[in-house]
Amino acid sequence: MGALLSLPLLAVPSLGTLMSFGASCCGAAACSAICHQCGVFKSSMATRIAYAFLLLVNSIISWLMLTPWALKKLEHLTLDYVNISCQGKQCYGYVAVQRVNFALGLFHFLLAILLIGVKSSRDGRASLQNGYWGPKVIVWLAFVVLTFLIPETFFQVWGQYLALIGAMLFVLLGLILLVDLAHTWAEYCLEKIENNDSRGWRVLLIGSTLGMFTASFAMTIIMYIFFAQSGCAMNQAAITINLIVLLITATISVHPTVQEYNPKAGLAQAAMVAVYCTYLTMSAVSMEPDDQQCNPLIRARGTRTTSIILGAIVTMLTIAYTTTRAATQGIALGGNSSHAYSKIGDEEGEHTLVDQQPTSRREMRAEALRAAVEAGSLPANALDDDDSDDESDDGRKGKDDERGGTQYNYSLFHVIFLLATMWVATLLTQNIDFEATGVAAVGRTYWASWVKIVSAWVCYAIYSWSLLAPVMLPGRFGY
Question: Model confidence over 348-397: pLDDT tens digits?
Fold first, then answer.
């Protein structure tokens, strides 16, 4: 960690020479102090934020590895022992990017294996998820160092095939979750309106729907004005197809047949999908190279810098949202939430009596409380009260929100992060300009533009299928 903190200081040789060792010590001390204060997170949200921050730091380091400056400083840190090259040429960190993301991916893969079957924080392995932050950071950094001992040919194959497949799975997962969010949002608003006859929720639903459609058409007009000049056939086709499919999906969402089989379908979901897919299309045309004079943002330095910063922010927010959403709502992946209290006598004909001798007074109390909750004598939160007592007995502060059951699937959470590292590596390393100098722009390639354009089309297809599936397969949907 100290070495990473000292990397920017090496830009000024004298300052780097004098302060590199001090930064390393301070970095290690700061990390130790922070981890000591954090201990074991009792809030599941705090744990997820910590892992998202680790991914953010890893992504920034990966981005720095793309530049010639970072490559030279990396070789300097290794005393010129490591010479990163692609077939004898400087590749500006292609392999380094793959190494760094592979290290974090391996870290999450191991955690996914170790945390299989964890149902609550009562499981001793749960502390691997919520605690041991100091050792986990050290393990991650050790993996980063060890990956530089692996031959470059491995990462050439990894980056071109395996990481690419994982990246596409990550993108597909994000699209599925976006459609799921659109349905969840609209159905939640409709439920509030139906149950409470709330004017506020009605205004919110209608206003957000109109606002998102307005934003979609506004972005479409902007794209036609600035990115669809004569000779820009790719941009013209992408913008026009997006507009046509937007209108088609909006029409399908209010079609009488669709409404008959799914009364909750409507323009609210279509608006969210439309604004997201239109944003993807606009991001694609605004991030493409300017070899055809179709991207005025590249020619304007101020807007170019702004677009790079905004693109990085949106990318990190999308990754954070996708991982959090996937971890907390397994229904979109066909899973069920494990956040439930253990019930006694779930099997038909099984009695609700305690027939095993508890091994301690605490377990005896827990068994008695579970039996009382199952019988209806006590509310379910009585188990949480018991958990709080247990924590007080252990001398720990704060309330653990996963004593009764985990808020999300730990293993699935780390699998999603594994895919996220593959996406970051693929996004940064596709079609690298080996002759470029200076800071590398993220995703400014035709490959990245086409991924976004096709992703928008796939998102429309997934949403359309969610509307048509109840019509075509009515027996599988209980509307």
Answer: 444 444 455 545 555 666 677 677 666 656 665 555 555 444 444 444 44
Tell me the angle at which helices 410-429 and 301-328 cross, rounded to the nearest 10 degrees.
160
Chain centroid offset of residue 34 CA? 24
CB 367 within 8 A of CB 358: yes
> Within 13 Å and on the Cβ side, how many CA atoms surround 244?
7
Query: How far apart, in Å, are the Cα atoms of 27 and each of 1, 21, 69?
Result: 6, 10, 22
Nearest-angstrom CA–CA distance, 275 and 334 = 26
Q: Report residue 22 as tokens.
A: 């001090």
Residues in contact with 131: Cβ distance below 8 Å, sequence separation at least 6, in sequence order:
39, 40, 41
Nearest CA among 334, 310, 308, 320 for reference residue 443: 308
Strand, helix or coil for residue 80: coil
Nearby residues of 259 by Cβ (< 8 Å), 6 or more positions away: 265, 266
pLDDT in tens, 122-162: 888 888 998 899 999 999 999 988 988 888 889 888 988 89
In the prediction, which pLDDT does 341 show?
39
* Helices and strands, counts by H and E, the chain: 19, 0
Q: CA–CA separation, 354 vs 333, rounded Å?
A: 36
304-309: long-range pairs with CB below 8 Å, 24+: 304/441, 308/441, 308/442
Residue 291 CA to its chain's centroid (Å): 32
pLDDT of residue 112: 94
Asked if 369 and 389 touch (Cβ cutoff 8 Å), the reply is: no
Name every residue whose Cβ is closer than 8 Å to that of residue 58 and which is 6 or more positions away in sequence. Answer: 100, 101, 104, 140, 421, 424
3 state DSSP class of 89 = strand
Closest CA relative to residue 332, chosen from 116, 459, 165, 173: 173
**Mean pLDDT, to the nearest integer, of 50-75?**
78
Helix 44-64, helix 94-114: angle, nearest 10: 160
Residues 215 and 221: their CA atoms lie apart, in Å, by 10
